[in-house]
Amino acid sequence: MAEPDGLYILHTQKPRFLTKVESNTFEVIDDIDSMLEYYKGDSSKVEGLFKRLSDWYKSYKIYNNGNRQVYGKN
After folding, report:
1. Are 15 and 38 in contact (CB under 8 A)?
2. Measured between alpha carbons, how far is 56 from 9 in angstroms, rounded to an integer?
3. By residue range, what is the domain housing residue 48?
4. Which of 26, 35, 52, 62 is the most exposed place for a label (fewest CB within 10 A)?
5. HEC profile for the chain?
6. Are 36 and 45 in contact, with CB atoms under 8 Å apart?
7. How far apart are CA 6 and CA 55, in angstroms?
8. What is the rounded distance in angstroms from the CA atom of residue 55 to the CA atom of residue 61?
């Protein structure tokens, strides 16, 4: 996974997974724990997890880069 410009997020609480961020979308690279099994087949909980991940990532970018870069302003 040596990728100089790649950004990865490792979710260390169950369900554990590694995701790659590309254009503000997330691609699961490795699901250490099956998300559907963890949430007993409830896909709405998986969707909620990724919604929270998206919210966290936006906050992270705002904190580190300022509001302008997150929302495409110069």
Report:
1. yes
2. 11
3. 7-70
4. 52
5. CCCCCCEEEEECCCCCEEEEEECCEEEEEEECCCHHHHCCCCHHHHHHHHHHHHHHHHHHHHHHHCHHHHCCCC
6. no
7. 20
8. 10
Residue 23 maps to a domain = yes
- State the total domains in the chain: 1
Could you check whether the bond before residue 4 is cis, i.e. omega within 30 degrees of 0? no
| Full-model pTM | 0.76
Mean pLDDT of 43-58: 95
pLDDT tens digit sequence for 3-15: 777 889 999 999 9
Whether 2 is in a domain gets the answer no
Residue 56 sits at the vertex; the CA angle it makes with 25 and 13, to the nearest 5 degrees, is 95
49, part of any domain: yes
